[in-house]
């Protein structure tokens, strides 16, 4: 890297047939060696705000394009280890786009490309030698709509372990993941029934179990509670807090109370119109959640959190 501060642009073809871990194994692809998590302590941001703890990931001058359209521009923010970072902002401001940039899920979208730098433990995850499958092993994802596979509860959780060739006793690892996702007690007597037969909230916890089974470091969640009732939402929020003992979480949410309740840091994005009348998203303010919700530095943030726009 010659000039780490300079935005760099690389075109992603968008077609990455090996991207779905469901169809790939680690054995037959080049292994990207990510630096050890302790290196995160040294990996200080060159620019942008700092979280209170060490950053496990960093975005520096990150812009995401869909073909010629620059959807989100110049994003600088850290992702603090073992904490919850929330991304909030009005529809279309680029929250999901930035979330996907954190584990190269944008590679799956034809025409999508990322400029700037995204690091994981100090290493550029878009560097040519880095395998996106390895990135997604360490930076997992849970989607808005619970999406269990049409398989048994057991097989849903065992799936990633099997295809990644993860060693160890499968039964124990499945139990550990389901326990970690606060679902074990509810499903331990029906592990062979379909994951699709569970309630929406249970399905989402099953998806969380599936994500944590392969032991990622970071879990990305895009509006994980938007299809759930308040009780199921409360359970997922409790679970998120528990998960930070082991994992780092980044959550996109439309629910500002949820961001205020669960997150340590909040990034507020908004959509603006540039001088060519093109609408684009940008990060307005990043700070400790308490500050964002009690004393935001930017009047736009203040207007949004007080419900006066968006
Ligand atoms: N696959 C895509 N192809 C082209 N443009 C896209 C694509 N996905 C998102 N965009 C555009 O990028 C911008 C940001 O979209 P994004 O989905 O990231 O917003 P968001 O903040 O997650 O919105 P919401 O709150 O509605 O989910 C929007 O203008 C959107 O139309
Ligand atoms: Mg979205």
What does the model show?
The protein has about 300 residues and is α/β, with parallel strands linked by helices. The protein has a domain at about 45-145 and about 220-305: P-loop containing nucleotide triphosphate hydrolases (Rossmann fold, 3-Layer(aba) Sandwich). About 30% of the residues lie in helices and about 25% in strands. The chain has eleven helices and eleven strands. Helix 7 (about 200-215) runs parallel beside helix 8. The longest helix is centred in the middle third of the chain and has 14 residues, at about 200-215. The protein is globular. Mean pLDDT is about 85; it is low at about 1-30 and about 35-50. The site of adenosine-5'-triphosphate has 11 residues, from helix 2.
Based on the structure given, which CATH architecture of the domain at 46-145 and 219-305 is correct? 3-Layer(aba) Sandwich
Strand content: 15-25%
Overall helicity: 25-40%
SSE string: EHEEEHEEHEHHHHEHEHEEHH
